[in-house]
């Protein structure tokens, strides 16, 4: 409301000046109010109305200015400064010019405001995306997400899930001091995360001494199943080197199990407005976790599902194991141990 009052007062000031000048008997009064120099302040006010970045204000300014121009024009005609026909056409011309100036200025101001808000919103969204994915993926992956203009939210897609877990870590931790447990996990996770990042995986979360990794979200690579299996093999090689360092420090060696499955899941941001987490939900995730646990029962290290094996059978050597029952399916499916 205050903006409308200010706009009205500005125009009233101009009218007062114009009428005051006309009564002073100055030479230019004979040209009429619409031609008096102070009249051009109305053009200026309309031209600057867009700086309020509110099209409604500019529209209001245009309407009031048109009414003012008609009032001044008829005053000029009544006073004999303009002939009737010429005066009416002249008044219409000035009114349309003044009103058009306000509308154009208002549109420019409105669009400028929209563009500024859009730029700010996009920048805030980018910061949010970086805050979400910066914890899970490398800087290159985050920048790729931004370049592709990925919008945050849930969607269904096919991904490959990698679960890894340290065997018998509870008993290992029981023999160590708390600070030693934390130090051991930090050293181990640092080695594994380096491998995951290098292969384009998205580190979703640490689950105690376990790791959940996604291949295919938020960025698809076209060979995500291959990347997941290659990551698993590299993790095993990295673990061998890690255990050599452990032996030098007289620390207990670690053994891990890895389960990999490819399937359709719901992936996206889940949580509240205060705290969100980019994660995956679905039976394919649960089956990957089950495959990881199966390593302990079968004495293996890397087990992949049949759906994953179909993507990598030509590039890895795998041994068929016993069929496993999958939740939601009537028939059991074969699983495979990746040897190399």
Task: Describe the secondary-structure layout.
Layout: H1 2-23, H2 40-48, H3 55-79, H4 84-133, H5 139-147, E1 155-166, H6 169-174, H7 178-198, E2 202-207, E3 210-215, H8 224-248, E4 256-271, E5 276-281, H9 283-298, E6 302-305, H10 306-312, E7 318-325, E8 332-338
Helix pairs in contact: 1-3, 2-4, 3-4, 4-5, 7-8
From the 3D coordinates, which CATH architecture of the largest domain would you assign?
A: 2-Layer Sandwich
Q: Strand share of the residues? A: 15-25%
For this structure, what is the CATH class of the largest domain? Alpha Beta
Number of DSSP-assigned strands = 8
- Low-confidence parts: 26-30
Shape: elongated
N/C terminus separation: 75 Å
- Label the structural class: alpha+beta
Keywords: Cell membrane, Membrane, Transmembrane, Transmembrane helix
Main location: other
GO molecular function, one term: adenylate cyclase activity
Domain Guanylate cyclase: 160-292
């Amino acid at each position: 409301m205050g903006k409308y009052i200010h706009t009205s007062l500005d125009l009233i000031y101009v009218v007062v000046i114009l009428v005051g000048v006309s009564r002073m008997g100055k030479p230019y009064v004979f040209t009429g109010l619409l031609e008096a120099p102070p009249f051009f302040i109305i053009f200026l006010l309309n031209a600057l109305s867009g700086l309020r970045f509110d099209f409604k204000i500019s529209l209001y300014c245009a309407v009031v200015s048109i009414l003012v121009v008609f009032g001044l024009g008829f005053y000029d005609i009544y006073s004999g400064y303009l002939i009737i026909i010429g005066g009416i056409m002249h008044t219409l011309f000035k009114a349309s010019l003044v009103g058009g100036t306000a509308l154009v200025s208002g549109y420019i101001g409105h669009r400028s405001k929209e563009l500024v808000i859009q730029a700010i919103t996009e920048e805030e969204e980018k910061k949010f995306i970086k805050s979400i994915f910066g914890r899970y993926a490398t800087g290159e992956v985050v920048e790729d997400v931004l370049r592709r203009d990925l919008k945050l939210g849930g969607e269904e897609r096919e991904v490959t899930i990698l679960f890894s877990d340290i065997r018998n870590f509870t008993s290992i931790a029981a023999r160590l001091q708390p600070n030693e447990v934390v130090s051991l996990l930090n050293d181990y996770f640092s080695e594994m995360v380096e491998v995951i990042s290098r292969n384009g995986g998205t580190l979703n979360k640490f689950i105690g001494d376990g790791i959940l990794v996604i291949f295919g979200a938020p960025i698809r690579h076209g060979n995500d199943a291959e990347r997941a299996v290659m990551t698993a093999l590299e993790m095993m090689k990295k673990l061998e080197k890690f255990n050599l360092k452990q032996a030098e420090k007289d620390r207990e060696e670690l053994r891990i199990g890895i389960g990999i499955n490819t399937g359709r899941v719901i992936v996206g941001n889940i949580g509240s407005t205060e705290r969100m987490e980019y994660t995956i939900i679905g039976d394919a995730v649960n089956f990957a976790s089950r495959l990881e646990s199966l390593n302990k029962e079968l004495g293996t290290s890397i087990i992949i599902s049949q759906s994953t094996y179909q993507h990598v059978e030509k590039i890895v050597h795998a041994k068929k194991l016993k069929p496993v029952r999958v939740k939601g399916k009537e028939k059991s499916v074969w699983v495979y141990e990746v040897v190399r």
